[in-house]
Design brief:
Elements: H1 3-6, H2 17-33, E1 40-41, E2 47-48, H3 54-59, H4 68-83, H5 90-95, H6 100-111, H7 117-125, E3 131-139, E4 158-165, E5 171-178, H8 192-201, H9 208-211, H10 217-232, E6 237-244, H11 249-260, E7 268-272, H12 273-281, H13 286-299
Parallel strand pairs: 5-6, 6-7
Antiparallel strand pairs: 1-2, 3-4, 4-5
């Protein structure tokens, strides 16, 4: 009998080895750490072991979050993204324990106001941060001239955005893409706006059609969003970071392929969650050290 069956919920036939492993980990966390014996409904009304029940979340909205700060930022962004005419699924954010969306809030929403967070960002992503302007999840850069937020015409957003000023006074943006067990999208989306940005930005050495293939399509679109922000959103420098599990070799391959297409490979960096956890554990900020322990328990080391 699988862990999913032991802790409630249907086995998801489409799960690969990685997803099944971490779905079981989230089911154990729900049952043993949160004390929620029943699992929640997923798509189509099936009980899924990594979903929180709606009633439990109504009673305690904090269940899917590591801190009150992460929950507060999630509730704030649910309202703001709707007003910005963006796309955010509250059910996924509040109830889906396996989703990378709450994971993202559990990193950036939890740490955004911590004193040691700029130092952690510098160590993790090789940044030069003199001051943080803002850290926000599910964010679309607005055009500097008009405030328009749909730079690619498809409501694309960064999972998180870090806006900061460097020691030499440059205003910079780090757009973050988070993956947990879900793969990069395998749908090959194509729009005239993608080709227009690709042609005008001078970021890429590879042909647009090559990058629009399904294997690299999603990360390419994220890079196009960064390139559009670089051109139209008032930043002196824009970079993208991808966060994924050490075990996720598919994500690593996609990042390497897209990096190879860039004239400046430093525009795209890749970091594992395990490395981020270890850097946080070595922080001089005790609150960040404590966060690293909670994050590791929630998301990492399923075999321990």
């Amino acid at each position: 009998m699988s862990a999913e069956n032991e802790l409630g919920g249907a086995v998801v036939a489409s799960d690969n080895r990685l997803t099944a492993k971490y779905r079981a980990h989230q089911a154990r966390y729900r049952h043993h750490r949160l004390g929620i014996a029943e699992c929640g409904e997923g798509t189509g009304g099936r009980l899924i072991s990594s979903m929180l029940p709606k009633e439990s979340v109504r009673e305690n909205p904090l269940l899917n979050f590591l801190s009150t700060s992460a929950l507060a930022h999630a509730q704030e962004r649910i309202t703001q993204v709707k007003a910005e005419r963006g796309s955010l699924a509250p059910g996924r954010l509040l109830r889906n324990m396996l989703s990378s969306m709450p994971l993202c809030f559990n990193i950036f929403g939890s740490l955004r106001e911590k004193e040691g967070f700029p130092g952690l960002l510098e160590a993790a992503f090789g940044l030069d941060i003199a001051s943080l302007e803002t850290v926000v999840c599910e964010w679309v850069p607005p055009r500097a001239t008009t405030g328009e937020r749909d730079l690619l015409g498809d409501r694309s957003a960064f999972d998180a955005a870090v806006i900061y000023t460097t020691s030499d006074g440059r205003r910079c943006l780090l757009g973050v893409e988070t993956k947990y067990t879900e793969p990069f999208s395998q749908i090959a989306y194509d729009k005239p706006s993608y080709r227009s940005v690709h042609e005008s930005c001078d970021w890429f050495s590879s042909d647009c059609d090559v990058l629009l293939r399904k294997a690299t399509n999603q990360l390419f679109r994220t890079m196009l969003l960064a390139a559009a922000a670089d051109a139209d959103a008032g930043f002196d420098e824009v970079r993208v970071a991808v966060l994924s599990l050490t075990e996720d070799q598919k994500a690593e391959r996609v990042v390497k392929e897209v990096r190879a297409s860039l004239k400046d490979p430093n525009r795209l960096v890749h970091l594992t969650y395990e490395s981020l956890r270890d850097l946080a554990a070595a922080s001089e900020d005790q609150e960040i050290v404590e966060w690293s322990e909670k994050f590791g328990e929630r998301y990492l080391d399923p075999d321990s």
